Amino acid sequence: MRALTWQAPNVLQVETVPDPEIVNPRDVILRVTMSSVCGSDLHLLGGYVPAMKPGDIIGHEFMGEVVEVGSGISQFKKGDRVVTISIIGCGNCEHCQRSDFSCCDNSNPNPETTDLAYGQPCCGIIGYSHAFGGYAGSHATYIRVPFADVNLFKVPDGVTNEQAVFVSDAAPTGYFAADNADIQRGDTVAVWGCGGVGQMAIRIAYLMGAERVIAIDRFASRLELAEKKAGAITINYETTNVHEALLELTGGRGPDRCIDCVGMEAHGTELDYVYDKTKQLMHLHTERGTVLRQAIRACRKGGTVSVVGVYGGLLDKFPMGAIVNKALTVRSGQQPGQRYANKLFEHIQKGELDPSYLLTHPMSLEDSPRGYAMFKEKTEDCMRAVFMP
User: Fold this and answer.
1) Is 1-168+334-385 assigned to CATH 3.40.50.300?
2) Tens place of pLDDT for every residue, the chain, 389 residues?
3) Which fold has domain 169-330?
4) Is Zinc among the key words of this record (predicted)?
5) Domain limits of the chain?
6) Is the pTM of this model over 0.90?
């Protein structure tokens, strides 16, 4: 089969690789119909996530058609149209039993790296380095999905492929971001990052009862989509002081809930960005914390900061004093999308949510290196490039 492989930092190549096979009774093999880029893939591309090896297949946001089913699977059959949650749960451990699938104890067959880095082993993630299981990714003709009875969901009638593919990652991550923020009716919510996850977080925040959502980014096309498609008030941080603007919009108190949809490669215009970038390049720490610091500083006293942007390691100049003295709640995590998939399909079927506008650049798998270049550099107003093997 054909697949997009990581060769070295910022080097991708489409090549012919062996087809996947059933290795466990709970496996399913899919023919991939759509596979999207994701902002967290850029951390892999740039070499910021450990344990990548030349030849690794990347990609984790996808849908497909069932072509082969393991002997332990009865819920799915050949020909089913399905979407896969990219964060892998086993369904049996205590965390999965609590619907905390992203904390799964059993889905990562290579737990040593995350155990050492974080204190406990983390879950497996499709196409996301050997530290998170070494699973082959979705930018390929076929893919093996482990624990398929937990991680696959049939796409309902009336939901298009263009809508369904984002129920794999962008939409549940946005839902998780808003859910973690503990949004109450009438709240003002600030969202940093107007990529796919940020767009979904905005829409879900409104569905959860937010009165106003303020979206922060620097790219005009993304800010325009956040306003016209998601209904947000927008701030361009390159032309506006974010903190002052948020205080002005909230009568001096700050947003009730702040959501970081950016993560470790945050861009900024202030001195802390230069500081972070320099230390990151010198391998003295791993994160750029501009967005996280802004969110913590801006959030109202007693408010909540929700972090779904990916962070990998260590961050300097973390404003712990603001968290303590403003009595903030900080919640974070990888998305447990199994918890939200059916709810998201219901919202789509009711016309309350339409993620399809995220798909700006459909293309073949053979063109995927160009798609990643567009996505990384934000050229041609690329929100999401989606590959169709």
Assistant:
1) no
2) 999 999 999 999 999 999 999 999 999 999 999 999 999 999 999 988 878 999 999 999 999 999 999 999 999 999 999 999 999 999 999 999 999 999 999 999 999 999 999 999 999 999 999 999 999 999 999 999 999 999 999 999 999 999 999 999 999 999 999 999 999 999 999 999 999 999 999 999 999 999 999 999 999 999 999 999 999 999 999 999 999 999 999 999 999 999 999 999 999 999 999 889 898 888 888 899 999 999 999 999 999 999 999 998 899 999 999 999 999 999 999 999 999 999 999 999 999 999 999 999 999 999 999 999 999 999 999 999 999 99
3) Rossmann fold (3.40.50)
4) yes
5) 1-168+334-385, 169-330
6) yes
In the chain, the amino acid numbered 284 is: L
